[in-house]
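This section describes the prediction task in plain terms. A model, or a person checking by hand, is given the sequence of a single protein chain and must write out its three-dimensional structure as a string of tokens. No templates, partner chains or ligands are provided. The sample shown here is typical of the held-out split.
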Amino acid sequence: MEDVSALYAPRTYNDSHPLLRAHPNRDASRERLVQGSPFMPTVEAPDKRETRPRRPSAGTHGRGKAPSTMVRVGALRGFSALVKSLDGRPEALLRRHQINPDTTRNEESLIPMRAFVLLLEASATSLNAPAFGLMLAQRQDIGILGALAIVLQNAESVSEAMRLFARYLFVHAPGIAVTLLERSPSGAKLCDLRFELLISDVPTARQVTDLGLTVIHRIFRALVGDAYALRHVSLPHQPLAKLSVYEREFGCSVRTAQPFAALHFERTLLSHRLTSGNVALRNIGVAYLDSRHQDPKQSVSKRVDAALRALVGMGSVSKTAIASALAIHPRSLLRKLNAEGTSFEALRDDVRRQRARQMLVSTTVPIAQVAGLLGLSEQAVLTRLCKRWFGMTPTDLRRHADGPRTHPKRLSVAG
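The expected answer:
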């Protein structure tokens, strides 16, 4: 079993790092830095009819708009070395997906999230490595988050660290969202840390989901130490690698073909104190991020989108339920969405479309159950929606989905 302790070994920054320059006592603080360093609305009855939504106007809400679908090159840390270890050619794979290999030398550079997703999927297939996402995660550490790493390492508690992580993850990857639910629907004493990919124009995203969940797991395991433990993990797809590979990595049971990707843990972990933190450095880090980055989730449409993503799969939610979750009057919510050039129906339709594609392409969940998870009254409604969304029925979409659901040969992942 691989010794991963070296991945989290602290290294020091030089004086040029902007957070050290900003700190009033940088000499005393330099050694503390590491390089690179709930809402639960009422679930209402399922929709009984299909409603054709009004689509967002150009320049407002919608996927595919820069910079919301970009990711820092830091997310590719270890990619070239991993590909070479599997007898592959990393430069060829990068160029095939319109990523200049020279760009990967600067972890602060941005690359399209879609290219990143397709690159990992293609790498897993061409290298016969179904656990490629997990394998890449083992070559990464908290340093891939850049300045956000400093903020997390100086949080006072697990709860604060997770909230800061969810709040500022857009700095690292605007195309990814993480949500902390303090009351998990999967257990009375559990919390969820959910992972969501915010793009829809990819056939599948197994590897990025595996990579994201595993990196998050490893980051918080390193931050928390011995007190960290997961109860179980949810995957939104049918994994290509053996389930034992995932269970060995996470140290707990793994449930597949779930409505969302999430780490589940005891709620008591949130109050655990992190002893190595420095409040002054945390505050400087937060101010640094706030001054240089604007959170794209500040818009009402983004907040509604996040709420829908967290709750689709637990039954349908109405305008009233989402408004209650966001502490906004329903009429005010609709006015604000209209001012942003979109509508509640358009946002819900978009989330349902993405979730339907994910479940139909990446899992073997029965089609009738997919309809229920989307909050639809019957399978016939899902069939009508799929014809509008994809130009084919759910059965045809599943039949034409790329990627085998069998287990290819190379399965081993160092733990």
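For orientation: The longest strand covers residues 190-197.
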